[in-house]
Write a structure and sequence with these properties.
This is Carboxypeptidase regulatory-like domain-containing protein. It comes from Maribacter algicola. The protein has ten helices and 49 strands. By secondary structure, the protein is mainly β.
């Protein structure tokens, strides 16, 4: 046996292997993308808000998507009707949004879907999906006893082999789709002989056992529970004169694949040629072998295999796939799962400080989202984590509560994940699905908000360009006029904003044109929604019957409680001063400020800062108590800046700034730039159009006004905190302040992704003070 790059099979494989090939529009399958939404919770009360962070990742490279800008996110009721929908702007694979859980949502169950327009071309790409619950009086009741039990059996390799030792995967679930944990399944033959007893399934109802399949015998699994009839499941009939595979995935350095067959079969097929292939996306490893008179074992070095889900296939001498099995390679240099450290400190005013830090040897920066709920809450119960949405779901045909396998992962959890993949068979892709077929892209890759327009009164001899600028965002664009005076483009445009259009004439002068414009990205109905909505997720059977919330209000009123950040709205432009805390102030820059202080340096001087030099060093200062000067650090759009870069700026380039001059805290100046400022005399040179079907405006998190933070309804279903954008690295802890709402125990849930595709999924239970 030896590694092969051989003969006709390898040539044919490369010719038909679908991944990396082009479809009719020049797109390669390496641009397939997967989606994950980190949600603040999955069970809601009326009056709350669903907050989410979107992560989009390329399937082949494992990197954040740089192609997708438009992500569709919608809520559907049980009848498959769309209730709410938003378009989310994705930049470098990241985005965020929210939905109000309001009076329009009258049902108790909904499904949250997220998809791109382009992925609808491919049947093997699936949307992100998460079931949600809305708690009402009639839904908070003890679940009735299990009405039915279903048992399914999955032979390893795809079929039972007569005369050989076979492994089978088992799935036991009740009528609610919940896995059944058992330790009393029994395997018998058709003569009533007990072959295996006390077979165990885990919390998801998944189990595994092995036995010798004797000729001319049939086999049955039996399961009996009190007050229910005995369940008997017949196993598939064994095949004769065939070879299958068994995978030992427990070794640290190697994956072992053993050929499985009867002695007579190996004697009959002695010295026949077979091939084992292991593939994932574009990766393909081949091993040819010649059968011996015994069960051969082939080893694969883990470091030579990609990290994540792989599929092994056994081909016979005619290159026909005869056995197959999925498995997970945990050990690889490509492993991009990153651990996280969280420490906490209790501070005043019913708050704690959380310090988040990556290990010292990890030289990356994670963009993360954080959800915090009361300990013991039933409100946060997602089907997938960011790990499973990107590492398992793209290759799986079944829907499981897969994040279970990566929580506090150890040897046992890895073994259970191997059982879970055993029952997948081919998974989402069988070998024939890898072959190149002609693909027609009915759904284009959307890029920004598309528009078409026309300048009716343009004089093309002198006026050949239009200047387009969004009023509230930083989007701007110059477009050439066509011979028919039309123009078109794509821009980052948000709902609630307006697109302003001006005509550029001779010498670059602007004038207000007679114009018409049409936004062309009208949301299209999701035709294949039933394929994404109609699936059952196998979940753990969790007992919440002990919770008592009767006679407590199950709806709340919303009010804005700002946390850590300030959102500048139109109201602030009418009153340009705002107070963030006792030490931190803010100013929104208006026309009057610009008229009084044309430069930023004169404006800062008006606020009491000292502009000038100190021992020959240019800077911005404040006086200290001893008569000296304290240097004030300056931040522009979240990045540190040198004083020389700032002092000469015109004030018109600043949208708003926050600052502290207090001696109780370190001083600072934080500046948000305004790239689209238009001076007053030029404002009448634009025609404005309300933006239709634009991106949803990102909103700052606000906590609902719960009536009682000590009630069981709050502890069972309430939220404490959400933050969509937190930057975490190993250079020093990232500190956030969290109000704890009089809770003594909390759960912190963190998910995130770095620019190199590294992933974080971390949960921690924190106890505050004495029990």
């Amino acid at each position: 046996m030896g590694r092969t790059v051989f003969l006709f099979f390898f040539i044919v494989t490369l010719a038909v292997f679908a991944l990396g090939q082009e479809n009719g529009h020049g797109e390669t399958i390496e641009t397939w993308e997967n989606i994950h939404l980190h949600i603040n919770k999955t069970t809601f009360l009326q009056g709350e808000r669903l907050w989410f962070k979107a992560y989009v990742r390329e399937q082949k490279t494992g990197l954040p998507s740089l192609l997708t800008t438009n992500l569709h996110v919608a809520l559907f009721n049980k009848e498959g009707e769309q209730v709410k929908r938003k378009l989310i702007f994705i930049q470098n694979g990241l985005g965020q949004g929210s939905f109000a859980i309001d009076s329009a949502m009258t049902d108790t169950e909904y499904t949250l879907l997220a998809w791109t327009n382009y992925m609808r071309n491919f049947k093997n790409l699936k949307s992100f999906s998460q079931n949600l619950k809305i708690v009402k009086y009639d839904t908070v009741s003890e679940i009735s006893s299990e009405p039915t039990i279903q048992i399914s059996v999955y032979p390893e390799g795809g079929q039972l082999i007569e005369g050989a030792y076979n492994n089978i995967g088992i799935l036991a679930k009740n009528g609610f789709g919940q896995g059944i944990a058992a330790n009393d399944l029994t395997l018998i033959d058709n003569l009533g002989n007990v072959i295996r007893k006390n077979i165990v399934t885990n919390e998801l109802g998944i189990g595994k056992t092995g036995f010798m399949v004797e000729p001319d015998k049939r086999y049955f699994l039996q399961f009996e529970r009190a007050a229910l009839p005995m369940i008997t499941k017949e196993l598939p009939k064994a095949v004769q004169n065939q070879i299958s595979i068994n995978i030992d995935n427990n070794g640290k350095d190697e994956v072992l694949i053993k050929l499985v067959g009867s002695r007579d079969t190996f004697e009959d097929k002695y010295r026949e040629n077979y091939t084992i292939a292991i593939y994932k996306d574009e990766f393909l490893s081949l091993e040819d072998l010649v059968t011996s008179r015994d069960e051969s074992v082939i080893s694969f070095d883990r470091e030579q295999l990609p990290f994540g889900v792989l599929t092994a296939i056994l081909f016979d001498k005619d290159l026909k796939p005869i056995a197959y099995r999925m498995f997970f390679n945990h050990y690889s240099t490509e492993n991009r799962i990153v651990e996280l450290e969280i420490e906490h400190n209790l501070i005043l005013n019913d708050s704690i400080e959380l310090d988040l830090l990556l290990p010292e040897d990890i030289d990356i920066e994670i963009n993360a989202s954080i959800s915090i709920i009361p300990d013991g809450s039933s409100a946060y119960d997602p089907d997938n984590s960011i790990l499973t949405s990107f590492l398992i779901s793209p290759y799986s045909k079944f829907h499981f509560e897969d994040y279970y396998f990566f929580e506090n992962q150890d040897r046992r959890k890895r073994f259970e994940l191997d059982m879970r993949l055993l029952i997948e068979g081919w998974g989402r892709y069988n070998w024939d699905s890898r072959k190149l077929t002609e693909t027609y892209s009915a759904f284009n890759r959307e890029n920004g908000i598309a528009f078409q327009g026309k300048i009716i009164d343009a004089d093309l001899d002198y006026e050949q360009q239009v200047y387009l600028v969004a009023k509230l965002s930083t989007a701007m664009e110059f477009n050439e006029l066509q011979k028919d005076k039309s123009f078109k483009g794509n821009m980052v445009l948000f709902e609630g904003d307006s697109l302003q259009v001006s005509l550029i004439g001779k010498g670059g002068k602007l004038r207000k044109p007679k114009a018409e414009i049409r936004f062309t990205n009208t949301p299209r109905e999701l035709m294949n929604k039933n394929e994404w909505l109609n699936h059952e997720t196998v979940r753990r059977n969790k007992d919440d019957s002990g919770k008592s919330i009767s006679n407590q209000p199950l709806s709340i009123e919303e009010r804005t409680i700002s946390l850590d950040e300030v959102t500048v709205t139109d109201n602030l432009t009418r009153d340009n001063k705002f107070q963030i805390s006792a030490e931190v102030e803010g100013r929104v820059i208006g026309d009057l400020d610009i008229k009084r202080s044309p430069s930023l340096s004169t404006y800062l001087a008006r606020l009491g800062f000292i502009i000038g030099g100190n021992n020959g060093k240019l800077g911005v200062y404040l006086p200290d108590r001893l008569g000296g000067l304290i240097k004030v650090p300056i931040i522009i759009d979240g990045m540190g800046a040198l004083p020389g870069e700032v002092i000469g700026l015109p004030l018109s380039s600043v949208q708003f700034l926050t600052f502290s001059k207090s001696r109780m805290t370190p001083p600072f100046i934080s500046i948000s730039m305004n790239k689209n400022y238009v001076d007053p005399e030029n404002r009448n040179k634009f025609v404005k159009f309300a933006i239709e079907n634009g991106y949803a405006q990102p909103e700052e998190y606000f906590a609902p006004d719960y009536p009682d933070y000590t009630s069981s309804i709050y502890k069972s279903y309430g939220a404490i905190y959400w933050k969509a954008n937190v930057s975490i690295d190993s250079r020093g802890p990232t500190t956030i302040t969290v109000p704890i709402k009089n809770q003594r125990k909390i759960w912190v849930n963190v998910e995130g992704m770095s620019s190199d595709g590294s992933l974080v999924s971390f949960k921690k239970r924190i106890t505050l003070g004495n029990e």
